[in-house]
C-alpha cells in the first residue's frame, strides 16, 4: 500500500490526500505528538471559551480529544481532502455537535477577519514547507498571511512541528517581523511510546498590533524540563537552541541501542544562566563482563580534580571505567561557576537526566550507583577572577587534592581543562616560639589554608626542568655555584622561585609578556623580586633577540615554559615562533659554551613535533628528552657540545648528588621529589 508521496510537492495536493485517506481508511493518522504529550502545552494557550481553527486537520484525533476532555468545544477543522472531511463528519457529527469539519484550503479561507482566538496546526506547516523553492515559500507566506488575518489581536497560532531548521527559521522570522511574540516549547517525550526519535516542538506565536518603527523582537525557548522560558536575542540563537535539543535526542537514542565505540561528551547547562553546570563523558568498557548490578554507574569527579590524568583524558577515563568494573560509566565534572548541595543534591539533580544515557536493555527502574573519590564532591574556592588583555579571563582557585592537601591553581578559562600554574598550600601553624591563643579560631574543614609551600613543585615537568641543571659544571655540581638562569614564562612563579631559594648563588631573570601574571604571582603565589630575582615585562622573542645582540654567552641555563594562546595549532607550549631555527640560533648565542637550554614541549601533532625536534638537532648537537608520564609534556635538554654526552645512569647519579646537596638541614624538602628518577628515564636523541 503506497501511503507516501512520490515527491515532497505532493504534500500540498488535495488529490494526494484524498488517495491517502481512502487507502488508510478509518484509522487515525498522527504525524507526531500524541495528545497526552501535547496536552500540558495546549492547556497553557487554549481556553474553554476560545474559538479554535485547526488547519490541515486530516483524520487526527487531536480535535476530538480536546473536545472530549473539556479543553475546548468551539472547534472548526478544515482540510483540502474531501475524503477525510466526509470521514471526520461521519465520525464526530453526532458525538460532538459544537465541533465542525469544513472542506477548505487554508491558503484561501472563507472566514472573516479576526474570527478565531486560536489557530492550531499539527504538522501542516512541516508538510507544506518541504523545500525552500520560491513557489513553496510563496505558499507558506500565503498560509501565514491567512492565519494572521483570521486571528484576533492577542490570539495564538500554535504550530506542532519537528522544527527542521529551515521551517523554524521561516516561521520565527515571519511572525517576529510582524511584531508577534514567539515562544518555542519542547514537548516532553513519552518514553518507549514515542514514535519519533526527534523531539516534537510547539511554536506559540502570539499576535500583537504591529507598531510603526523597529520594535524589539521577543523570542523565547522553553525546554521540556522547565516552565520558565529563556529569552534569546536572535533567530539564530533560537534555532541553535532547538538544534542542540535535537542532537541530544539523537545521541540518547543511539546510546540506548548500541554501545559507544568512542567516548561521548556533552554539557548540561544551568536553567537560569544557560551556562554549563555539568560536563559528562560516556565511557563503555566492552572488556567488562556485565551482570544486572554492574551495567551502569555515575562517577562524580571531585571539584578541582577534573584536570588530573585519570579524569581529564580519554585514556584516563577508560582506565577509570575498567577499574570501576562497570559496562558503562558516565563521569561527571563540576564547573567552578556553579554551586552544588553535596553529593545528595547532585544525585537528586542528575538522576532523571543520566538515565537517558543508560545502556541498551537497562530496566527503567534499575537503581544506578553514584560513585566518587572518598564519597564527597571535593572542595573548590575561587579566590580571584579577572581578565587579562593578553590571556583573557582567568581564575585563581584553591582546591582539595587527594587526602588532606590543598592546592592553589591558576586557570585560563579559554582552556579551562589545563592548570596553568599550581602551588601546594601549607596548613596553618604557629610560628616557632609563639604560643597559640586560647580563643584562636580553628580553621574550617572547608576553608583551605593560604600559605604557599615554596619548597614543593607541583608540576612534574618543573621537577624535570630543575633536574636538568645537573648537566651544568664539573663532576660535582653544587647549589652554591654561581649560576645565571633565564626563565621565559612566569605563570605563578613556582619554577623561578624554587631555583632562587635552593640555589643560593643563582641569579634568576624572568621574562613575562603579561603584566597581569606578575600581579597574580605576587599576590596569590608568594612570588617576590629581589637582588637575585628580577622580572622583565617583555615579549620573550624580543628580549632574547636583544640579549643575543648586546650580551651574548651570559646564561648557564635558559628555560622556556611559555604557553601558546593559539589553540588552533597542535602545539600548546611553546608558541611556534619560539622553536623556529633563526630564534633558536639566538638562544644558542646567549648560552655559555657549557650551558643548557631546557624546553617544555607540549605537542599533540606528531608531524609538527618531529619538525620541532629536527630543528632543535640542527642548532644543538646534544639533545636529551624526558617524557612526563601521564601527560603530553616532554622536557628537552639541549647542549652545545656533543663531547659532554652522558648516559642515563650517569645523569641519574649526578641528579642524586645534586639532590643530596639541596637537602640541607633546616630546609624543607618533599620526600616524593627524587631528582635521580627524573633523569634516569631520559633518552638521547
From TrEMBL:
UniProt keyword Cell membrane, yes or no: no
GO MF annotation list: methyltransferase activity
Methyltransferase domain sequence ranges: 50-171
Gene Ontology biological-process annotations: methylation
A Pfam family recorded for this sequence: Spermine_synth
Keywords assigned: Methyltransferase, Multifunctional enzyme, Transferase
Signal peptide boundaries: none
Name the UniProt record assigns to this protein: eEF1A lysine and N-terminal methyltransferase
Source organism of this protein record: Pitta sordida (Hooded pitta)
Lineage: Eukaryota, Metazoa, Chordata, Craniata, Vertebrata
Gene this protein is translated from: Mettl13
